[in-house]
Amino acid sequence: MFVFLGVARAQYLINEGLIRFSFFTTALGAIANVGLNFILIPQYGGVGAAIATVVSQGASAYLSSFVYPRLFETALMQSKALIAPIRYLAWFGKAVYRRT
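Predicted structure:
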């Protein structure tokens, strides 16, 4: 999910001329990934690498939107996009339950 949010946000950042911010968030994600890999891989192996990747992608593509005031609206839209599948599944589960 974070990859898709990051791809969409990258296009927005380019259109708004926020290339420098995009560079810093990408660098943040890379540094977080390397650091978490050093911590998690010795203990958890491949699962630790996967966790490190998801966390660093989330920090780079999603959490960094809350840091820069100009992207607060983008952060709210990303939050709604992350919550939408949960809300849909909750509604769908209730609809299925009522039919039986």
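Summary: The chain is about 85% helix and 0% strand.
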